[in-house]
Design a protein that fits this description.
- The protein is built from four helices and 28 strands.
- It is globular and about 45 Å long.
- The strands form seven sheets. It has a four-stranded antiparallel beta sheet with strand order 3-2-1-28, with no helix packed on it. Strands 4-5-6-7 form a four-stranded antiparallel beta sheet, with no helix packed on it.
- It is about 20% helix and about 45% strand.
- Strand 5 (about 140-145) and strand 6 (about 150-155) form a beta hairpin.
- Helix 1 (about 1-25) packs antiparallel against helix 4 (about 85-95), helix 2 (about 30-50) packs across helix 3 and helix 2 runs parallel beside helix 4 (about 85-95).
- By secondary structure, the chain is α+β, with helices and mostly antiparallel strands.
Length: about 400
């Protein structure tokens, strides 16, 4: 059935692609005409998805799909010719059968590619000491930082070929791509800067001063702001994507790392590895509104963070043996899974990523990626990743798209 859905999605994407081209040719790209196209498109996505994964296809899912498409459409006037391509690739991404999982293997100098459809490794990319990892909005391009080479490696996800390298600052870590796909932001941890890359020319166009030891980044759902965690100065720097101006430096906990936004953009969540808590930042005031206690000294260090598509749950992985589910906005613990031994599940969880109603979690000690249902967090599948170095807990960061 999933093969049928894949063929159907391709046919549907081609149909919508030509419809968009027709709209441009007759110069009728008005708000009303695009509204009709997007409405039909969103419901078509839901139908194709229902043929592939019936258990995940609900009427309510049409709304976030439609919202995503309108988010993309905000950028079309600046590069109108790419609008049909946004629709085509958004369909393939939203259907889910066509999506891939990308996982970094640090000691193995590699990024593994896993199909969400077959849940098997389908490729491997070579990157010296990979750090951060990010996909373009259409999932056509993958950006991976190389911490030893001080550059960003750029891959075509369809051909799995290296298509470029961009020199940035020293020891680059996190990387994010803006929702319009035009800029990639990179945190350079050893020279306290942030590089802004023009994704079309593949050149650094701005180098911004950050706090001490910039580590991870996140871009707001609106695309207006980029948040950077500064692990050595215990702050988060906030930049405007349009002006590149730093508009705030927010004190948080000790050794801040990964950042995740609520889907509505009202709050950002920052994992503080050193102080075992998560800082909640109110984006309207650019201040820390509260801290959520997680982890414990020396054994349960918080690492990964993600927010579910519904915006109702905050998920936090704790390195060594835990996974937390926290209610939003009450910040109360809903569930804590403790993996005390190999028989109970993953050990040494690190990076996590949410894709639709599933959580993908790196289990670095087991060389696996676990797929868990949301909100139950029950294991749906376990994917073995054949790392090249035995006894190395090398799997670390993950993204899906």
């Amino acid at each position: 059935m999933c093969l049928f859905a894949s063929a159907l999605s391709t046919w549907y994407a081609i149909l919508m692609h030509h419809l968009c081209l027709l709209l441009f040719q007759v110069s009728c790209c008005t708000i009303s005409s695009w509204s009709v196209v997007l409405y039909i498109f969103a419901h078509g996505v839901r139908y194709v998805r229902s043929q592939c994964i019936p258990s995940t296809a609900t009427t309510q899912e049409s709304l976030p799909i439609l919202k995503n498409l309108f988010t993309y459409s905000r950028y079309w006037p600046s590069h109108v010719s790419s609008a049909p391509h946004f629709l085509t690739y958004t369909l393939l991404k939203e259907v889910g059968c066509m999506a891939n999982i990308y996982v970094t293997n640090v000691p193995g100098n590699a990024v593994f590619i896993i199909s969400t459809q077959t849940r098997k490794v389908i490729g491997k990319l070579s990157v010296p000491l990979p750090g951060g990892i990010a996909l373009s909005p259409t999932s056509q391009t993958l950006y991976v930082t190389s911490q030893t080479k001080n550059n960003v490696w750029i891959f075509n996800t369809r051909t799995k070929k290296l298509i470029g390298k961009v020199a940035v600052g020293k020891s680059p870590r996190g990387v994010v791509v803006t929702p319009n796909g035009q800029r990639a932001w990179v945190a350079n941890s050893d020279d306290n800067t942030v590089s802004v890359i023009n994704t079309h020319t593949r050149k650094v166009i701005h180098t911004l001063v950050s706090g001490q030891g910039p580590s991870q980044l996140a871009v707001s759902p609106s695309g207006r702001s980029v948040y950077v965690s500064n692990s050595n100065s215990n702050t988060v720097s906030v930049y405007r994507t349009l002006t590149k101006q730093r508009v705030a430096t927010i004190p948080v906990g000790t050794n801040p790392g990964h950042i995740a936004f609520a889907p509505n953009g009202l709050r950002a969540y920052v994992v503080n590895t050193g102080s075992n808590n998560v800082s909640v930042i109110r984006t309207s005031t650019l201040t820390e509104s509260s801290k959520i206690p997680v982890g414990s000294p020396g054994s349960h260090d918080p690492y990964g963070v993600a927010v579910t598509v519904s915006g109702k749950l905050l998920l936090v992985s704790e390195f060594l043996d835990s996974l937390l589910s926290i209610s939003i906005p009450s910040n109360k613990l809903v569930k804590k899974l403790i993996f005390s031994d190999e028989t109970t599940g993953a050990k040494a969880p690190q990076g996590i990523a949410v894709f639709r109603n599933l959580l993908y979690m790196v289990a670095s000690a087991n060389d696996q990626v676990e797929v868990r249902a949301i909100p139950s967090l029950k294991v749906v599948a376990t994917i073995d990743v054949p790392t090249t170095l035995e006894s190395e807990q090398g799997l670390q960061e993950i993204t899906v798209g």
